[in-house]
Amino acid sequence: MEAEFYSLQKIRKLSEEAVKDPESFWKDKMHLISWFKEPEKIREGEPPFEKWFVNGYTNISYNAIDRHLDKSEKVAFYWINEKLDTRSITYRDLYCEVNRASYVLKELGVKKGDVVSLIMPSIPEAVYMSLAVHRLGATLVIHYLGLSEETLTYRLNDCNSRVLIVASKGFRNGNEIRIKDFVDKLLDSRKTPIEKVLVVKRGYDDFNVTKRDVIYEEVRPRGRVYVEPIWVESNEPSTIYYTSGTTGRPKGLYHSTAGYVIALNYAFKSLMGPKENDIWWTISELGWPVWPMANLYTIPFMGLTGVLFEGYIGYKPDMFSRIIERFGVNLVWSSTTTLYTLKSLGEESVKSGDTSTLRLILNTGEPLNPGAWKWLRENMPHVTIADAYWMTEHLFPVAGTPFGIGEIPYKAGSAGIRFPGSDFRVVDDDGKELQVGKKGYIVLKPISPALAKMHNDTNGERIIKTYWSRFPGYFYTGDYGYMDEDGYLYVLGRADDVIKSGERIGTLEVESVVVTHPAVAEAAVVGYPKEVGEGILVLAVIKKGYPMSEDLANDIKSYLRNSGYIVDKVYLVRRLPKTKSGKIMRRLIRALVRNEEIGDISTLDDPSILEELKSILSEKD
Ligand code: ATP
Ligand code: MG
């Protein structure tokens, strides 16, 4: 499994070759998965309507389980919760349980072309059920725990799901989440296509059983069963994801079966260089693509061992390092917000348990500010911090640090270099390519099989309008940034959030400075209209132990002035508005200070923050 090791120069060459001849580049990666029938053609057509690995047939669950019968005693997953209770699941268990779950889903009539929805916490059964959906060739949609009734109803209808798989309950941050009760209430009062609910019980349970329910424990075959995997054409949908909703209403996207997983497996080999016996923990909620990307489409594909954590990393300050120690975790893939949480919890978070086995932490979700990077390096000097910049629409890194295949320098604040197999540009308002060092819009010339199609968009009108019309010929990422003389990409924030104060300022530029103030754990910066141009408004999350005082706000203001940023307003807060995937929703703050429509808040993690923000922002001027 160990890959060859390249110099930065060689990686650049690899990347150039991929740009020149994407088909040969990806043909070479085709055998990262097993095929029932190999494709007849590598690529056909042009993005966004191209097809990859045409007329090839494969099955996701076959790749994840049947291929590993020779290592049946190896642990496929460890599960752990906030109380540090654990379970371990071998590859044999995984094989047997996926087959059992497939049998039950087949009995429920699930077949190729169907869309199956799932709402569960991070437990082994979520892996069994998801892979079982794929075994039958159906399309999987994982919904967040805790979406509002309205949002979930919309999504169930949008996907046209007939079957919903749930766990009766889940646990997070010391709270019990009664999933089954919530779903009952929704299905009893709203119109959805759901006909059957498959319920996985969590120990002793006291939920109601309705006519639509099938209790998994009651129908789960006792003995061994084998369900034939259904072979699926490369371009048929495997899964539907909704974007995070950071910049607007979430968009539903679907990914292919073969191209998507091939690109993912190559991405992780390059990013992390996983070794045969590595233990890999992905810290993410289930509804975010990160969880399935690791736990369904990579860890079992490569035959590695994964860690499933049911809970919230900030529940106890020592949680992170205790879990690393418990399993001897080698690789962590984490959302940016989780890394910020560790920093705000302080040294205890990374020093309570022994983290000496940990080699690498991969960041995804937002630009990792240099202060957080420095803190992680100082407190865990043996750990490499890696980065991958990608998006739900293109689940292959646009830029990243391919430490798994090469020796490249890390630059704090940057997402990394052009990833071999990707091709990005930075352009001005007119779509003209900008020189090195100039800030502009990040666009993509997609050359990987990881570009999603839009859901419910048969003639492609929506995908063109949403992503290809702003800069014709390019896929527009919606992000703002620049590239340096070594080809490193710096994502400075969302283009919608850019502040027009004299020059254009990306939100990360100011936020990176605010968080180096000793009292500040995290920050969000937005522009607000002034008579001429825009002013800068800062929301600073204050660490515990510091007073929320006028003096502190003034101190932060002068601290920023000394760093070259004239800031008009500084508000001290305890938390920021975030999406369920943990991203700061600056558009909400912007709308509130401008008295504009709030817009879509279907993925706002805790809507009670709206009132909180309103009252803070009206405190003073
Ligand atoms: P929406 O599209 O609904 O507004 P979203 O863009 O947050 O939400 P995702 O697809 O989850 O939805 O996130 C992709 C975005 O996340 C990227 O466009 C980029 O802004 C940001 N991002 C992801 N990873 C990184 C990273 N490593 N460095 C910088 N930014 C990142
Ligand atoms: Mg987006």
From TrEMBL:
<dbReference type="GO" id="GO:0003987">
    <property type="term" value="F:acetate-CoA ligase activity"/>
</dbReference>
<dbReference type="InterPro" id="IPR042099">
    <property type="entry name" value="ANL_N_sf"/>
</dbReference>
<keyword id="KW-0067">ATP-binding</keyword>
<dbReference type="InterPro" id="IPR025110">
    <property type="entry name" value="AMP-bd_C"/>
</dbReference>
<dbReference type="InterPro" id="IPR020845">
    <property type="entry name" value="AMP-binding_CS"/>
</dbReference>
<comment type="similarity">
    <text>Belongs to the ATP-dependent AMP-binding enzyme family.</text>
</comment>
<keyword id="KW-0436">Ligase</keyword>
<dbReference type="GO" id="GO:0005524">
    <property type="term" value="F:ATP binding"/>
</dbReference>
<feature type="domain" description="AMP-dependent synthetase/ligase">
    <location>
        <begin position="72"/>
        <end position="445"/>
    </location>
</feature>
<protein>
    <submittedName>
        <fullName>Acetyl-CoA synthetase</fullName>
        <ecNumber>6.2.1.1</ecNumber>
    </submittedName>
</protein>
<dbReference type="GO" id="GO:0006085">
    <property type="term" value="P:acetyl-CoA biosynthetic process"/>
</dbReference>
<dbReference type="Pfam" id="PF00501">
    <property type="entry name" value="AMP-binding"/>
</dbReference>
<dbReference type="Pfam" id="PF16177">
    <property type="entry name" value="ACAS_N"/>
</dbReference>
<feature type="domain" description="Acetyl-coenzyme A synthetase N-terminal">
    <location>
        <begin position="12"/>
        <end position="64"/>
    </location>
</feature>
<dbReference type="Pfam" id="PF13193">
    <property type="entry name" value="AMP-binding_C"/>
</dbReference>
<dbReference type="InterPro" id="IPR045851">
    <property type="entry name" value="AMP-bd_C_sf"/>
</dbReference>
<dbReference type="InterPro" id="IPR032387">
    <property type="entry name" value="ACAS_N"/>
</dbReference>
<keyword id="KW-0547">Nucleotide-binding</keyword>
<dbReference type="InterPro" id="IPR000873">
    <property type="entry name" value="AMP-dep_synth/lig_dom"/>
</dbReference>
<feature type="domain" description="AMP-binding enzyme C-terminal">
    <location>
        <begin position="509"/>
        <end position="583"/>
    </location>
</feature>
